[in-house]
Amino acid sequence: MALTAQQIKTLQNSLSKGFKTQATVVFDSKKTFTLQVAGADQKLRKVLLQQVQKTLAAAPYNATYNPPAGKSGEVSINRGEYYVKAKEAAKANKPMFKPSDIVPSIVNTWLDPTRMVANVKEYIQKADLATAERESIIQLLDITAKGTATQYTLPKFPRDLVPSEFFEVLSAIKLSILLKGNDAKTKKILGIPARTDMSQVKAKIYIPKQSNFPLVDYFISISPTGKESETTAIKISVKSKVSSAKTNTVKFKDMYAKASDVTKWYNELTAAIKRTQKGQKIIGESVLTSYNLGQGRVGPRAPVLSLIKLIEGDRSKIESVLSQKFSVRDVNKFKTLLEFVNNAMTVTRQPNPEFGTDIKTTATQQKQLTDFIQANISDSGNASINLITFCYICDKVLVESSRETSSSKYNFYQMFYDEVLKRQHVAYAVSSFKNGILSYNFYTQVNWAQEYHNWIALRNQSSTNVFNAPIGLDV
Which of 75, 148, 215, 229 could bridge to 84 as Cys pair (CB 3.0-4.6 Å)? Predict the structure, then answer.
């Protein structure tokens, strides 16, 4: 049940008063409270978040805290309805560099690269930045917008200051400059005939304000008539590896509208390829079925339904993963348990119900659930025997099944290639920074496997407490 307006106000007051001597509390008006802490002491930030969790552990806030390794993490309030984070105040108050933050605006309008550079530079000049920081970012912008080079030696590159979203802007500018300069490699990658003279084309960039626009971060129009259209423009998805190696997650619902679309894809494969794509088909169909079932359980239901269908349709492969990595000795009994949990999700309405209390179980079922959860959670002594924890482990089974080192070897590259690269013609802009060198690279169906990689696994974005989103492709 969602928090009431009074409960939210009480939450805000509790944080503001309880931590006023240690931090400034900022509420972003969406769903995140941030404790802005003076100094860079990560241990202090973790201590403060632990105190938040203890203070708000009881209903209706039900606060939980599981920080990832090497990070402060966040406290989840009421199963992810709100979050409490802790940040270094100096960094928390830095200017934002997401496309939608920049003024004069560069989103939801077609701009040529010169105008986009001018707008971004105006924003940087007015931003509250140290002189050295401002100069570094402007240098980055200027070199990106000049010439057809795609690699730059930057020993003093401000990688911690520039967020990954800013590379949507930088890569869009770089790509438009490459096209304008008739760069042969770029034209080949994008499928533009070598004889086409791009120097006369008025390239324009369109960045959607919507940050979660399906598959696409920006469009580039190369219409010879100068009439821009999203339907005819080049579609680009951005992946920045500059600040971290974190990857993009491509959602199944952004590739297919419904489960039958996955079935259609599979049926059009050759007999030889079908033999290697059976499990991928089953998982894709199951995730899309979970979306269509709705009922607020899309994320948790997807892995449970996938495992049920894999046991029915590709048993030997998934049975090997379950037995080798997840201590499942009897796959028939485990399938029955999965079916019980799947049915329970239909009737229970609590966000994260406990087995044995909120969800009635027999003694045998309770033992099976407890054994499975405790065998697969590192802190097994404190493992909660609840729905989200069980489904989270099922998610981990699917991720493991898609690893190149797994016994099942469910590689999703064929699905990604056919649907995203080939049918939807999405190109990828990948920026990276290594050994003092910043690189801009672009990939399509022309060079993806040869120059990038030919294995795509699954990636989950959830935890033992909260399902943030259904499993997707780790691109």
Answer: 75
